[in-house]
From TrEMBL:
E.C. no: 4.2.1.136
PANTHER family cross-referenced by the UniProt entry: ATP-DEPENDENT (S)-NAD(P)H-HYDRATE DEHYDRATASE (PTHR12592:SF0), ATP-DEPENDENT (S)-NAD(P)H-HYDRATE DEHYDRATASE FAMILY MEMBER (PTHR12592)
Gene name in the database record: nnrD
Bound cofactor: record note: Binds 1 potassium ion per subunit.
Protein name: ADP-dependent (S)-NAD(P)H-hydrate dehydratase
Amino acid sequence: MRQILTAKQLRAAEQRVFDAEPDVDLMGRAAQAVARVTDAVVPTGTVLVAVGQGNNGGDGLFAAARLAAHRPVLVWLAMGSAHEAGLEAAVVAGAQEVDAVGAIKALAECSVVVDAVTGLGSRPGLPAEVETFAAACQAQGVPVVAVDLPSGLGADDARVHPSFQADHTVTFGAPKPCHVLNPAASRCGVLHVADIGIDAEPTMLRAAEESDIAAWWPVPGARSDKYSRGVLVLDTGSESYPGAALLSCAGALHVGAGMVRYAGRAPSGLIMSRFPSVVIGDGRAEATVLGSGWGDRDNAESRVEWAKLHQLPAVVDADALYSLPSGRLDGWLLTPHAGELARILGCTRAHVESQPLECVREVARTTGAAVLLKGATQYVAELSGRVTIAVPGPAWTARAGSGDVLAGICGALLASGLPAWKAGVLGASIQAMTAARNPGPYTPDELSARMPAVIAELAAAR
Ligand SMILES: NC(=O)C1=CN([C@@H]2O[C@H](COP(=O)(O)OP(=O)(O)OC[C@H]3O[C@@H](n4cnc5c(N)ncnc54)[C@H](OP(=O)(O)O)[C@@H]3O)[C@@H](O)[C@H]2O)[C@@H](O)CC1
Ligand SMILES: [K+]
């Protein structure tokens, strides 16, 4: 599990290191990591380092000094002044200074640019000259290695602002929100987290990794049977949207539900013709899925209320999200996308997209349910405010029907006895990981049919 640190938390962690070891050379370690990644990304040719006036520029200048020992290096002091000791080290090592015009001209001969203009102290946006330079790097296709974060982004901010478009970003100690929250994360390229001796304490924002998914996956044991693995009741689909019922069945069955009952309004013959192991009708169950493909259903509220009355853990998806009962929804998982979350909150979709953490936390706080916000980055918030980001995957899954499959997957995981937040993280992650291993325009149900192989791989890795 990767802890994600805000700029303030990272600075506090850095201070703890300085308090324990006042002479520690964190900047030297950061510079070493930047030089190492730069050499690995583009091993030869001229390096152009764009330098700001703070410590991010200091990292860039000490990296320039290391690189100048074995390859040509140019430095552009983009803000006029710069870290004094860093500049001296770079010049002594042989780096050549260029001005703004020289920097743009030099792009034609450079093999790589190091962006060390701003980092943790970054205010969103760039001065005009730097913005022009960043655009020129992109237009000319010169690879960019960003120090800590692409200058112009805000460390704690999901939004994009005028900034560098990095191919690689070397950050220190732990990822910051901008590295994992989209769309900002899309400006970072490949993320390298360098260990410079700063320990990240557990935080309220963390990112799940494949090893977590392997460790948490409910693998059946010698004494497992269909009941102990979890019985799931699906009330999904409708006469108008029968496909949603099939898709939720596909998701639940392919991740290993012990038994799936179908109690929705889609024709039972359709379900049986595709999934003969599904039992038609309500009955004993450990969890339910409500809402996918309901459309405008007459008894939506009473159906959701029924699950609450029976204390049945529920995955609440799509249309059922607007019929939530009052009171705490302990053990429930809500699975909205940004538009649905906006409707629940009474705000705009754009607001949810620019403040995803705040919005997803707000709904978890007011309902008591775990909330899985679906999208390019998938967040699971808990009542406590803790947010876990699911393992990311390619955009191939961004298509109609993926959410219906995901609801079925999460339902099966909930029925197996997992807490709601974990069912959400595992469900979103397994879909993303399967898409990553099977790149291409697979339909959501075809992709679900490939999940058993990925789950077997995870189980074997434990
Ligand atoms: N903490 C750690 O653990 C470690 C930190 N390390 C490194 O230190 C970095 C943080 O350094 P930092 O605090 O000096 O801030 P930094 O990002 O260089 O920027 C501040 C300067 O930029 C300016 N400025 C900002 N935005 C601007 C804008 N849009 N347009 C124009 N100007 C703008 C700002 O101006 P001001 O806001 O004061 O007007 C100020 O002068 C961190 O990212 C990492 O690389 C590592 O060495 C080791 C471990
Ligand atoms: K930077």
